[in-house]
Structures are given as structure tokens and as C-alpha cells.
Specification:
It is a single chain. With about 625 residues, the protein is an alpha/beta fold. The chain is about 30% helix and about 15% strand. α8 packs antiparallel against α10, α8 runs antiparallel to α13 and α12 packs antiparallel against α13. The longest helix has about 55 residues.
Length: about 625
């Protein structure tokens, strides 16, 4: 009985200890957030929320202590000293921020992975490195550290595999030949510093790029030999066996001149080839345009012979009759050329592109000016005519690189005709999910990031337009089209707001606040409560499509968003990313950063989601780092 009491008391003590420690960890995180999160990206951090809902934080499943922090590309500033209380942390990743103060390393004895690159840390190498016996990877690159590195302390790390110190202001020597950093270091870089002296033999296995930018450093693999104790002259070119640099001075001079002439010749040939290619492309484009104009004129002649052969009027199964309606004037906006009456469209040659959730789309060739547009025909119960006319006039005045322009419209009691620019390269949905079998051309990472940024710019422009608080209402990857220049353009703006249509229960883009349980009576006025924050949620789902290559087909526990959250809560791994992105392993940081943006957009509470202008800035920062 006494033994049982001791066990119970011990268990109670352990439970209380872990609870107190867990509370201390979260207090430390909140203290760090209050000082460092000046951009308010960590809105999901709340003391009453479970660890799994905290962005970039992972806790131990038993002790609930914080063991991992991944907060990259979040514009964090100031000191990381509040994190010193996280004594159980194993993984600390804070790269690409603006942090400037770092404590001693010995406050985190369990650290295995440290990624603090691209910040503003300064001062000497953080002391206490010898205490991190489990350390495997250390990245302090692209900071403002100075002074010597503690070679002796680094020598006491048996498991160290990665040491990145490039582009700081470190100085001093790298140690003697007999002194080497313990462990099996496989990744090493000290380029862009002020190191001096001879490169130790044990470091000579690494490439030249690991040492460049240190003017006073010498020894293999660099091409400069170190001066002997009796020679005080500057380092000279190193002689290596069978090296092309072992020629007399005159031959080296001749070689340099010949090499210069060769480079100039190659550059001249390159310029000539570039001019020829540009000339050919211009000629080919001009010939295509002439062929297209000839084809359209030929179509016009054929129309004069037989008006009913391929007109938009005959593409309609039913609808506008050839009465006075056909001569009704359309409401035209900037760029509306070659048509101003309904009949101008009805007699034009047309090709059906497909049927969507809000109507049928036709590719229409305007015969008078060889222009090609898209006519969307909507046959649904519309709101009051005054609302339709006013709303469409607002949409028609939107002009932005990343918005599909509405050129004209015609509305009646029975139907609605909308005329848009024709974008030939299809939708983002087709580019991501079309033809996933053999013969598919994968969508590369740079293009995906470009589409994400373009869509963000378009939606941000819409949300901030003239302070109207307008929202899209049905933002999906199918409503993101690509133009001739590869720009992502958002389309079908506000059409769902005009139509009395129930929200599909299988809509994977739908924000939680729009679910049917929150909107039982779907016939009431404004039942769905569309908002700009619901657009932000939908945008987050589109980002997940871009990153995972999976289709957003459902909501609830089986949705794409829920699946990604489950994977992310387990570990930040490649499991979540599209297999087509596996060849861009070096871009993992950018992919994870974009995933974090998506997760911020998918917060369940609308008020905690960022505005699109903030989302645009976050993606723009990722793209800038991608282009460096």
C-alpha cells in the first residue's frame, strides 16, 4: 500500500512538473512573439490553443515540451533571448528574418539542428558550442559575425555534419593540420569571410567554392601556395601535378592573350546568334498574325455566303431570338472593339470552350477587327437588374495585369452575356492537374511561384479597389487563367455573388464560415456571407494545390487543407509536396515558406487570417529570395 502511494505521488509530481514546464515554454514563446513578430504573422499563437495549432511549433507527444521551431521568412526582428527557456528544443530554424541578438548556445543542450542564416546577428561566434554534443547541422551564414571561430570547441562535437559560416566577417586561422573538427563533416563553407593562413589538410577535400572570398587564405584546393617561413613575398600561383598553370611566365602571358581572344570570339558569336533568333521569332510571329487575319477574313466571306453556318447565334441552343433584342446595345468598357450591339456577337463565328458552374463559354472571333474574345452566357436567376448593372459596371472598370478584363456585357430578364479577353494558355487547374500520365510536361517550381504571386497580386488589387470591399466569391484554380506572357489572371469575379446558387457541399475551397451548418436557410438575403477573408481561405487552398499537385475536391476531414495540416503537424517533410518538385530540393526553403503562407490563410477564424495585401508581400519576399 505504501509502495502504491509512492508511485501515485511520483506520478503526480511528474505530471505537475511537465505541466509547469509546458506552461513555461508557451510563456517564453509568447514573450518572443510580443517582441519579434512586428508584422503580426503569428496570429495562431494563443496560450489556450493546443500546440498543434501554433504555426511553426512542434511539441513532444508525451511531455508536451516544445522540441522544434520553424519560423522562416516571417520578418521577425530583435532578440531570440526569450527562447532560452525552451531547454528541450532539438530543432531551431529562424533563417531569412531580421533577428539581431543571440544568446549562448549552452542554454539549449539538446539542439541537433540550428538554422540561423540570413539574419542580422553580430558579435563573436556564439559561445558554449562545446556543450551541444548532439549537434549535427549548424548554419550561421549570411550574418554579421566577426572574430575567430572556436576550432577547439568545434573539435568536441562528435556528430557535426554541416558547418555553414559563409558571408560573415570571421577572421583568424582555421587551425593546424593536426587539428580537425571531430565527426564526419560533409558540408562545409566559409567563403566570403576574412580568414587567413593555410587551409588544414583535413579541409582540402572540400571544393574551392567553400573557401573563396578570403583574400589571405592559401593552400589546396585554392590556387595560391602559402609562403614558407623564410619567404615573405605574396602568395603565388600553386603548382599542381599535370596542371596547365605550370608554364613559364611568357607562356602564361600567351595563354592569357589567347584565352582573351577566345572569350571575345565566343561572346561575338553569342550576340550574333541572339540577333538571328530574335529576328526569326519576330518574322514567325508576324507570319502567324497575317495567317490568322487571312483566316478570319476568309471566315467573314464564308459568313456572307451563309450567315448561319458557324455563328454564335446558332451555337446557342436557345435564347436570344432575332427580334428587337438582337439590336440591343451592349454596355462597353475600355478595349471593347468591333462590337457594340448584341447582333455583332451573334453573327460572329464561335466555338464552345466548355460549361462551368456559372454558365457556358464560347470563343468568338470578331470579324471586323480579327479580335478574339470569350463570351460567357449565364442563364440563372439573377438579382435585381439594378444590382446586376451596377455591379458589372464596377467589375468592367477593373484594369490590372493579373485580372481578366471584362470588355462588355448585356443583361436581360432571361440571361446575361459577358465578354472577356481571350487568354489562350488555359487555367491553372489544367496546368497543375491535366494529363498527369506519360508525356506530361511538369510545371517547374519557378513557374508555380510566379503563378502564386500573380494570383495574389490580382486578388489583392480586387480587395483594395476603390475601398469597395469587393470580394471574388468563388476563388479557385479554375478561375486563374494564364495570358500570352505567362501571367496569372483571376477571372469570373463576383459572378457567384450575382447568382442565386447554393454552395456545393463538395467545394474544397469553401471557408469554414460558409459551411451549410452555419447557413441553414440558403434562400435568405445574403445567406452565405461571402467576404474578403473567405477569399483568403480559398487562396490558401489554391496555394496547397500549387505545392502538393493534389485537387481540392471536398471539405471537412477529407479536404486537402485537413490532409496537409495532418502531415505538417507530424513533420515538415517532402511528403506534402508534389513529386514533380522533387528535383528542386535546393528550393525546399522557398517551398516551406510558401506552405507557411498557405497555412496562415487557412486559419479557421476569419479575423485571424491575413489580408491579401499582406499575403502578396509575403509571397513577393519569397520570390525575391528565389531570384537571388
Amino acid at each position: 500500500m505504501a509502495s502504491l502511494s509512492k508511485i501515485l505521488c511520483f506520478s503526480l509530481f511528474i505530471s505537475v512538473f511537465f505541466t509547469i514546464s509546458h506552461s513555461d515554454d508557451f510563456s517564453a514563446l509568447l514573450a518572443f512573439k510580443s517582441r519579434a513578430d512586428t508584422s503580426n504573422f503569428l496570429t495562431s499563437w494563443s496560450k489556450n490553443a493546443p500546440c498543434s495549432s501554433w504555426l511553426g511549433v512542434k511539441c513532444h507527444p508525451v511531455t508536451h515540451r516544445v522540441i522544434k521551431i520553424v519560423l522562416n521568412h516571417l520578418n521577425l526582428t530583435g532578440s531570440i533571448h526569450p527562447l532560452t527557456q525552451l531547454t528541450q528544443i532539438r530543432h531551431l530554424s529562424l533563417h531569412h528574418n531580421s533577428l539581431s541578438s543571440i544568446p549562448k548556445f549552452d542554454v539549449w543542450p539538446n539542439l541537433k539542428h540550428v538554422y540561423l542564416s540570413h539574419n542580422k546577428f553580430s558579435g563573436e561566434f556564439p559561445p558554449g558550442i562545446y556543450s551541444l554534443k548532439r549537434l549535427r547541422r549548424l548554419d550561421l551564414s549570411f550574418n554579421e559575425f566577426s572574430g575567430e571561430i572556436p576550432v577547439t570547441e568545434l573539435n568536441q562535437l562528435p556528430h557535426l555534419m554541416t558547418l555553414y559560416l559563409e558571408f560573415n566577417s570571421f577572421s583568424g586561422s582555421l587551425g593546424a593540420d593536426e587539428t580537425r573538427v571531430a565527426g564526419s563533416v560533409k558540408e562545409f563553407n566559409i567563403s566570403g569571410n576574412n580568414f587567413s593562413g593555410k587551409i588544414p589538410n583535413w579541409l582540402s577535400k572540400f571544393p574551392v567554392a567553400s573557401f573563396t572570398g578570403n583574400a589571405r587564405l592559401c593552400g589546396y584546393p585554392l590556387r595560391t601556395i602559402c609562403p614558407s617561413e623564410t619567404v615573405t613575398s605574396n602568395p603565388t600561383v600553386m603548382s599542381t601535378p599535370n596542371s596547365q598553370f605550370n608554364f613559364p611566365n611568357q607562356k602564361k602571358k600567351n595563354l592569357s592573350e589567347n584565352m582573351f581572344l577566345l572569350i571575345v570570339t565566343i561572346d561575338a558569336l553569342g550576340v550574333m546568334m541572339t540577333v538571328l533568333v530574335i529576328t526569326w521569332c519576330c518574322y514567325y510571329r508576324k507570319k502567324n498574325q497575317e495567317s490568322e487575319i487571312y483566316r478570319l477574313k476568309k471566315t467573314k466571306r464564308k459568313y456572307n455566303q451563309d450567315t448561319s453556318s458557324s455563328s454564335l447565334y446558332h451555337s446557342f441552343e436557345y435564347g436570344i431570338k432575332r427580334t428587337s433584342d438582337q439590336f440591343a446595345t451592349m454596355v462597353c468598357f475600355e478595349g471593347c472593339k468591333g462590337f457594340n450591339k448584341v447582333d455583332d456577337l451573334l453573327k460572329a463565328s464561335a466555338e464552345m470552350l466548355g460549361k462551368g458552374s456559372v454558365g457556358t463559354s464560347y470563343k468568338v472571333a470578331i470579324l471586323d477587327n480579327a479580335d478574339v474574345v470569350v463570351v460567357k452566357r449565364v442563364i440563372e436567376k439573377l438579382k435585381k437588374m439594378k444590382d446586376v448593372d451596377g455591379f458589372l459596371r464596377l467589375i468592367g472598370n477593373l484594369r490590372h495585369t493579373n485580372v481578366v478584363s471584362l470588355r462588355a456585357f448585356y443583361s436581360s430578364k432571361e440571361e446575361l452575356l459577358l465578354v472577356y479577353d481571350f487568354l489562350p494558355n488555359g487555367s491553372l487547374h489544367n496546368l497543375l492537374h491535366g494529363n498527369r500520365g506519360p508525356g506530361r510536361t511538369p510545371l517547374d517550381w519557378t513557374t508555380r511561384l510566379k503563378y502564386a504571386l500573380g494570383a495574389a497580386k490580382g486578388l489583392s488589387f480586387l480587395h483594395s479597389y476603390n475601398k469597395t470591399k469587393i470580394c471574388h466569391g468563388n476563388f479557385t484554380s479554375s478561375n486563374i487563367l494564364t495570358d500570352h506572357y505567362g501571367n496569372a489572371c483571376i477571372s469570373d469575379i463576383g459572378l457567384h455573388l450575382l447568382l442565386q446558387m447554393p454552395i456545393s457541399s463538395n467545394n474544397g475551397y469553401k471557408a469554414p464560415e460558409l459551411s451549410t451548418q452555419n447557413n441553414v436557410n440558403t434562400t435568405n438575403q445574403n445567406p452565405r456571407k461571402f467576404s474578403q477573408k473567405s477569399d483568403v481561405y480559398s487562396f490558401g487552398v489554391v496555394l496547397l494545390e500549387i505545392l502538393t499537385g493534389k485537387i481540392a475536391t471536398s471539405e471537412g476531414e477529407t479536404s486537402l487543407a485537413k490532409w496537409v495540416q495532418r502531415v505538417v503537424n507530424k513533420e515538415w517533410t517532402w511528403d506534402v509536396f508534389d513529386f514533380e518538385l522533387a528535383r528542386y530540393k535546393e528550393k525546399e526553403d522557398e517551398m516551406v515558406a510558401l506552405l507557411k503562407v498557405a497555412m496562415a490563410c487557412l486559419v479557421s477564424s476569419p479575423k485571424d487570417r491575413p489580408k491579401m495585401i499582406v499575403v502578396e508581400k509575403m509571397i513577393e519576399d519569397i520570390a525575391k529570395k528565389e531570384n537571388r
